[in-house]
Amino acid sequence: MFAEKHYPDIMRPEDLDAYLSEGWYRMGQTIFTTHFLCFGEVFYSAVWIRLSLPDYRFRKSLRKIIRRNKSEFSVKIRKALLNREKEQLYQAYRGSFPGLLAPNLRESLLDGEEFNIYNTYEVSVYHDDILIAASFFDLGGDSVASIMGMYHPDYGKYSLGFFTMLMEIDFAQKHGFKYYYPGYVVPGYERFDYKLRIGKVDYYDLSSSNWLSYEQLEHSDIPLNAMKQELRSLQQRLGAQGIGANLLYYPLFEVNLFGFWRTNFFDHPVFLHIPLPNERQKHLIAVYDVRQSTFFLYQCSPFDDIQFYFNESYTRSFTKDHFFMELIVVDRILAKGVDTIPIVQALQLPGNLPESSV
């Protein structure tokens, strides 16, 4: 699945290392992965990154930030403790944050629970005796994962959110950790680009399941771009055979993250929809899976009433011209191939070819 969530009862250091190495990340007490995002009506790829620590050195501009803030403020790094002081800071930060945040710090970090299955540490920054910034990070066996940071809006000019990341990196390197995981970046969406300032990072490549240099990431390597490019190629080939296919985006691709019962939910963010006017309860859908560099032709069917799972105002915000808004599951694979030929051939077989194209 492109989007998946696990609910572990315990999290051993080596287990966290394994999750992080495959592009997973902690959310509350759960751990999840996703490789695509939708902001408004625009879709993006989520590209997971990590920093290798053994040979890492802070460049001059980063050392300047560290020196300036250490001269102005005091820094404490210790086992994480949620208390009134940090809750007050969280509420001040939440009040100025442009997006949605959990109602309180305990809900954000621990899903409201008292226990924590992660080995979490904190960076706390003080101006005299006043807490003005804090961040939280988890320790694995050879990995450190940055979870969240917050700062008082009155101190916005000091880049304290970024500064606490640098303190996390410094701690991780001094204690012999191998990797630092700051989460994902989103090519084409600058809000997350600050993570790239830490240095030369690697990214998790879906097609090879390896970590590669982010500096070598090409526009065509970004998963969503690769999907659209290959699907447009298939769309042209189908059109040449008189078979209509619409390129549609699927805002419900993250259904696997929402805690519903496990089933074979369709989870591609973009696909070709081949109309079947006389089979309204079935859908022919072609996808390009970047993990296998393979085209698939699926038969899908509606799962249930979408309004039971998704807010009606959310679903109505998408137009049917460009978005597919039925919650569907995959019934079976009709064809697959590393090129478009098997998909075209399958759609030319009696019973598969849309009647409107005959």
CATH topology of the largest domain: Aminopeptidase
Could you tell me the mean pLDDT?
A: 92
- Largest sheet composition: 8 strands, mixed
- Broad structural category: alpha+beta
N-to-C terminal Cα separation, in Å?
A: 34 Å
Low-pLDDT residue spans: 354-358
Output the helix-strand order.
Answer: EHEEEEEHEHHEEEHEEEHEEEEHEH
Main sheet strand line-up:
7-8-9-10-11-6-12-13
Looking at the structure, what is the overall shape? elongated
Helicity level: 10-25%
For the record, the CATH architecture of the largest domain stands as: 3-Layer(aba) Sandwich
Give the radius of gyration: 23 Å
What does this structure look like?
The structure is a single chain. This protein has helices at residues 13-21, 60-72, 84-96, 105-110, 160-174, 223-240, 312-315, 341-347; strands at 4-6, 25-27, 30-33, 36-39, 42-45, 47-52, 74-79, 120-127, 130-139, 143-151, 179-185, 202-205, 210-213, 246-249, 270-274, 283-289, 294-302, 328-337. The protein folds into 2 domains: 4-217, Aminopeptidase (3-Layer(aba) Sandwich); 223-357, no CATH class. The model is unreliable at 354-358 (pLDDT under 50). The protein has 358 residues and is α+β, with helices and mostly antiparallel strands. The protein is built from 8 helices and 18 strands. The two termini are 34 Å apart.
